[in-house]
Design a protein that fits this description.
Belongs to the TrpA family. Pathway: Amino-acid biosynthesis; L-tryptophan biosynthesis; L-tryptophan from chorismate: step 5/5. Keywords: Amino-acid biosynthesis, Aromatic amino acid biosynthesis, Lyase, Tryptophan biosynthesis. The chain has 272 residues and is of the alpha/beta class. 45% of the residues lie in helices and 13% in strands. It has a single domain (12-267), classed as Alpha-Beta Barrel (TIM Barrel), CATH 3.20.20.70. The chain has helices spanning 12-26, 46-54, 74-85, 90-103, 114-120, 122-132, 148-156, 171-180, 205-212, 229-236, 246-253, 258-268; strands spanning 31-37, 60-63, 108-111, 136-138, 160-162, 164-165, 185-188, 220-223, 241-244. A nine-stranded parallel beta sheet has the order 5-4-3-2-1-9-8-7-6. β1 (31-37), α2 and β2 form a beta-alpha-beta unit. The longest helix has 15 residues, at 12-26.
Length: 272
């Protein structure tokens, strides 16, 4: 399975993201995209966790802590609450990303709901994100047909945008979302919120991805429910990228070796 060659004009951030997917594909694997909430477990402890993930990541996803994360399960919700309680704000998140960028060349994307962007101001947020070296934004609660300002401002500042589809998305919705993505398309493997689950991580994913690839001009990554090398391997057979989040937050909370878990899951992302 080859990663699609984007036909849309790319921003610098999009070009870096697409290159990361292409490198992984050339190596016979899906891109490994770990997630961590900014400021978790503490603002001081976050950089070491992020460094451990970046040692194996093709792309790092950093979540802005938010008080009402409707798409996140209890694990990430608790992490956001703890990070917010420790003083990690939207601006602080971008400073943390700037510090990571000074040490790593791996692409970094920010996952955020729209309210934190509006709280800072969309143009100011994009300016700060560009200065921090953010390559892309994952926008789980922004319908691409309802608010073009954020996507337009992101492009103006060299930042790619990613929207989400789910098994419940209609073909019309999949087409709309797929064509709006400039970074990658994020396919949610299950209906519901984030979090590790028992059993197969595939479910309706193959059919959803077959539909998405009719319209997507960017790579397609799958997340929600991937928690170990086995589930990552299942997803890697059909996706261009594998997103893993709650498993790493649980590992931090339980005092486990995040780097070892990242290495194991990254190894599971090989195809075949």
């Amino acid at each position: 399975m080859s990663v699609p060659t984007p036909t849309t004009a790319t921003t610098p951030g999009a070009a870096r993201l697409h290159a990361a997917f292409a490198r992984a594909a050339q190596q016979g694997r899906a891109a490994f995209i770990p997630f961590m909430t900014a400021g978790y477990p503490t603002a001081e402890g976050f950089p070491a966790v992020a460094d451990a993930l970046l040692a194996r990541a093709d792309i790092l996803e950093v979540g802005i802590p938010y008080s009402d994360p409707l798409g996140d399960g209890p694990t990430i919700q608790r992490a956001s609450e703890q990070a917010l309680g420790g003083g990690t704000s939207t601006r602080h998140t971008l400073r943390l990303v700037r510090d990571l960028r000074a040490r790593h060349d791996t692409p970094i994307v920010i996952m955020t709901y729209v309210n934190p962007i509006y709280a800072v101001g969309p143009r100011e947020f994009m300016r700060l994100a560009q200065e921090a070296g953010v390559d892309g934004l994952i926008l789980p609660d922004l319908p691409p047909d309802q608010d073009l300002e954020i996507a337009d401002l992101a492009a103006e500042h060299g930042i790619a945008v990613t929207f989400l589809i789910a098994p419940t998305s209609t073909p019309e919705r999949v087409k709309l979302v797929a064509e709006a993505c400039t970074g990658f398309l994020y396919a949610v493997s299950v209906t519901g919120v984030t979090g590790a689950r028992e059993g197969s991580a595939l479910g309706e994913v193959p059919a959803m991805l077959a539909l998405a690839r009719q319209y997507a001009r960017v790579p397609v990554a799958v997340g929600f429910g991937v928690n170990d090398a086995q589930t990552a391997h299942q997803v890697a057979q059909v996706a261009d990228g594998v997103v893993v989040g709650s498993a790493f937050i649980n590992a931090v909370r339980n005092g486990q070796d995040v780097g070892a878990l990242a290495a194991s899951i990254a190894d599971g992302c090989h195809k075949g």
